C-alpha cells in the first residue's frame, strides 16, 4: 500500500534533490555561508564562526526540502542503520558533509575532532596530526534532528552544532530550525556566554499556563499518556519534538515544557539541546529535579570514546521554575519503559 506521503510526491524535482546532487552542492553552499557569516559580524571566535557557517550552509541545502516535504527525493529517507524506530537516513549525510568539509577549511581551530549523531567515534577535522589526547576542541552535531518525522509529515526538523573543550566546558552552540528559519548562536567570549538570536524580541508569556503545553516524541507518548501530567488534564501534548525545534519553540513562547523522563536522549543529543535551553534561561533538570552534570558527560564521552547510544540522559526542561515544579510533581509515576 502506498502512503499519501509517497502518492503526493512531485517526480519532476526528484533528480535535483537526490543525495548525489545535494552533495555536489556542499562546497558552494559553504562558500556562500562564509560570506554571509562574515557579513553578519555576529560570531566573534573561531568556534562561533565555524558553528554559524555550518548552520547557514546546512540551511541553504536543506531548508528548501523542509518547506515542502514532498520535494524530498525518496532515496534520501532510506534507512542506513540505527534503531528500527529511529533509523539513520541518507539525508543525514548532507549535514555531515558540511561539517567535515568546513572543518578541513578551518585552520584556526587546531586539534579539532568531531562526532555526529550517526558516527561511532571521534573523527579528526583539522589537518594536523596531534592525537586526540592532546586535543582541546570537540564538536558534536546532529545533521538533521527529527528526520524520522518526515515520512509522517511532521515539520519539526532542525540542525545543531556545539563545540566543547576537553574539560567539558561549552564554547559555542548553534541551532537552526529548518522549518521556520529561526536560529540561535551561543558563544563564549571573555569567559561569558553571549546569545545571538534571529528573534531576540519574541514575546515570552508570563506566569503559569492553565494547561501546560508539552513537547515530547510521538513514540514516547504510549508510556507517558498514563502519567498524572496527562490524565489530570493539566497538560496538552502540543509538539512531537524534544530537540532543537522544541528549544526554539520554547524560546518563542509556543510551549512550556520539554520532557523525556523515561528513556532519555543519547548523550550527544542532550549535549546539544540541553545547554541551548540552559543558556536561554530555562530550567533543566533530571525527572527527580536534580541538576545534570553536562561537563562530566562530555568529559566521559571524550575520554572513553562513548558510543552515541551507550549513555542516555533523562531530562525535563521548563520555561519557568513554577512550571517546572508542577511538571515534576505530575510526572511522578512508575509508568512502563518507553522505547
Structure report:
The protein is about 30% helix and about 25% strand. With about 350 residues, the chain is α+β, with helices and mostly antiparallel strands. The chain has two domains: about 5-195, Fructose-1,6-Bisphosphatase, Chain A, domain 1 (2-Layer Sandwich), CATH 3.30.540.10; about 210-330, D-Maltodextrin-Binding Protein, domain 2. The strands form three sheets. The protein has a seven-stranded mixed sheet with strand order 4-3-5-6-7-8-9, sandwiched between helices. Strand 6 (about 160-165) and strand 7 (about 170-175) form a beta hairpin. The longest helix is centred in the N-terminal third of the chain and has 21 residues, at about 45-65. The radius of gyration is 19 Å and the shape is globular. Mean pLDDT is about 85; it is low at about 1-15 and about 335-339.
Task: Please tell me what the overall shape is.
Answer: globular
User: Per CATH, which architecture of the largest domain?
Assistant: 2-Layer Sandwich
Binned strand content: 15-25%
Q: Which strands sit side by side, in order, in the main sheet? A: 4-3-5-6-7-8-9
The parts where pLDDT drops under 50 for at least 5 residues are 1-13, 334-339
Taking the alpha carbons of the first and last residues, their distance comes to 26 Å
CATH topology heading of the largest domain: Fructose-1,6-Bisphosphatase, Chain A, domain 1
Give the oligomeric state: single chain
Give the tally of structural domains.
2
In helices, the fraction of residues equals 25-40%
| Largest sheet, strands/sense/barrel | 7 strands, mixed
CATH class label of the largest domain: Alpha Beta
